[in-house]
Predict the 3D structure of the following.
Amino acid sequence: MLLAAIPSPSVNGFHLGPLYIHFYGLMYVVGIGLAVYLGRRRWQAAGGDPELVDEVAMWGVPFGILGGRIYFDLTTPKGIPHHWWGPLAVWDGGLGIWGGVALATVVCVWRLRRAGAPVAGMMDALAPCLLIAQAIGRIGNYFNQELFGGPTSLPWGLEIDPAYRPAGYLQNATFHPTFLYELIWNLLLAALLIRLGRSGRIRPGGLFPLYVAGYSAFRVFEESLRVDYSQYFLGLRLNFYIAALVALAGVVWFVLLQRRTPGEAIAEPAEPVESAESTESTESTESDESAESDESDAEETPARP
């Protein structure tokens, strides 16, 4: 008999007038809002314009959700609801973090380069904020009774209702709360990245690949515990392999950045369109003025006999 366990919630949302608010979606909204707030403060402390964080979020958030859902649909096709809107039902099935981060990063880098902002600096500022947002988002998994590991008798075992237990585990009552393990890890990793950033020992642009490597490395451990539905390859979950590859890529990315010479640019921001036009106009004006000055000098200088 278990002396202690984490109880499962009896509901996964609440009614607000005619609307039903899912805790899963609400946690993501709270996490994103907090990430933007903290990102503004970190970017401003680094000497940047906090309004730029808002612009990045306006582009990154919707594309991140889209990328996350596409990843989920591709890697977990049996988890798609059987409706015409099923592939887009983010509230039913979830999001794939790697797809979300990948697409959001591509779009945000594009916007930063168009704005002429330093990409590496912004990525460093946002890396810990993303981890905090992900940690809050994991609370939504608790309300959905998902993202849990194998059976356990540990005091912090998570009670799962029979309706949510995977096939083969109907006789088990408590499971590893892997969502909670990840939540704790994300907060610890965020604190570590903030500390490393303040130490000055990491070159610009280094915190983001550490985020990628650190989060993915933990997912390797997490995927080895989970027993919920997933695609399998050679006896292991598909996300196990993806996590391992992404973690390795993050380590290589970090090492390459840190081995750059001090004078080597981490990122060359694109010149803003307005700035380029202004520069061309200035150069043209200076050229015209120089030509007029030369003609004037030629007229005033008497010809030699």
In short: The longest strand covers residues 13-16. The helical segments are 23-45, 50-75, 97-115, 119-143, 178-199, 207-225, 238-258, 273-300. Strands lie at 13-16, 19-22, 158-159, 174-175, 232-233, 236-237. Residues 273-300 form the longest helix (28 residues).
